[in-house]
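Batch job 17 of 40 flagged for manual review because the log was empty.
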Amino acid sequence: MLLLAVLLIADVNCQKKKKRVRDKKKELVTPAPTEEDVFQLLEKDEQAVEATRADLEAKLRALEDREGQEQNELDDFMDNFGPDPCADKKCGPGRECMPGDKGKARCVCMQKCPDEEDNRRRVCSNYNETWISDCELYRTRCLCDEASDDCTNILNKHLHIDYYGECREMPQCTEQEMGDFPRRMRDWLFNVMRELADRRELSPHYLQMEREAESSPQETHRSAVAAVWKWCDLDGHPHDKSVSRHELFPIRAPLMALEHCIAPFLDSCDVDNDHRVTLKEWGHCLEIPADELQDKCDDVRNANEANDEGDEEV
């Protein structure tokens, strides 16, 4: 009986061991994935990639929105508290400064000129038309020069002031008046220079020239000094050793209403009709001997620049 019991126990243990071996073999054998399984796996991967991409795009949009908001806040701050880009910007007649992108200033045609009721501010154009103010004339020229839809006549891009005051018929300059005009012009130039010197409105170099001419017994020397001063003063940017018809405007426009001979006189100074007046032509027009005229413009400008630098250092 004992032997039989031992055999039975051994047989039971053997059966359990075989079962464990069979179970382990089943665990080791993995069935091959089907085609459907592969598609499901690929679909899950694509969904994961798409979700990741969408998440990244959302974060990028949020970052761009935040940067845009910060830039707007910075722009608002600069507009309200930053430096004015138009503070040092100079625009020509009929134009005004407007802040542009990125804090840059630009000159545009004036939207509106100040209301003008004073008839003394009226000007006469080169087309013999009266304008209520120089601002209106220059604004109109700007609009046409910029090809704006508000330009009513393309020829207005060539508008300029012929003289101050309302347009009127100018009397003819007689031969006798024209013959005496150079002397009157010389006297007027020196008187203007003397008045500016007395008011200390001349630069130091010009002031010295005027005082030397004042003490000179020769009238031709005084006339020459005044002529050179005005010619150098009129020769603006660029300093090209000649005065254009446009640069003669500061003399022509203020005097036209008072001196009807000023226009034909200045026209006669341009002997070769190239629309420019050299110092030699200027002296010939004013009947000043050629040996009395010296081009001192460079000396005057250099002296003025030196004085300006000295003032800045102080």
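Reviewer: the log was empty due to a logging misconfiguration, but the result itself is present. The chain has a mean pLDDT of 80. Unflagging and moving on to job 18.
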